[in-house]
Specification:
Blueprint lengths: L2 H18 L12 E9 L8 E10 L2 E6 L8 E6 L5 E10 L13 E11 L3 E6 L6 E6 L1
Antiparallel strand pairs: 1-2, 1-8, 2-3, 3-4, 4-5, 5-6, 6-7, 7-8
Keywords: Signal
């Protein structure tokens, strides 16, 4: 093997070694943008069913959505990180009020929290509340 071929092999080896240590392309941002959320909860335990629609935003695969006025009855936030494959567990937090939609009766707004198991693709997503009351989520990219 001549000196030219050895130089070429050495250069290729150096390039391959540097690529092996390079981080993989990050899928962060795959789902970024404005989204519309529809939350639907059926009748359960004496509470009537309801549907909420509210906006959400995803930045660097982190979702934040909010419905209603903070610290008022009926307020809800939805937050969490999506994995590169579109799966995620979001956390819903809010304040329930004594309405026909609430399970149980309360004298003042009461805090609640629950998790939502989700799956997204580039333009849509779906999710379901885990735990007590089974509610469904539909996400549509605007």
């Amino acid at each position: 093997m001549g000196p030219g071929k050895l130089t070429l092999i050495a250069q290729c080896s150096a390039v391959c070694a540097s690529l092996a240590g390079a981080p993989a392309v990050d899928a962060a941002g795959t789902f970024d943008g404005d989204w519309s959320v529809t939350l639907t909860c059926p009748k359960a335990d004496g509470a009537s069913g309801y549907t909420y629609r509210f906006p959400a935003e995803i930045q660097e695969n982190v979702l934040h959505g909010e419905r209603g006025a903070r610290d008022a009855g009926g307020w809800l936030t939805l937050d969490g990180k999506l994995e590169p494959d579109g799966s995620g567990t979001l956390v819903a937090q809010g304040l329930a009020t004594s309405t026909p939609h609430a399970i149980g009766r309360m004298d003042k707004p009461s805090p609640y929290t629950y998790e939502v198991s989700t799956q997204f693709d580039a333009t849509s997503g779906s999710g379901s509340r885990t735990g007590m009351r089974k509610c469904g989520f539909v996400f549509v990219k605007d």
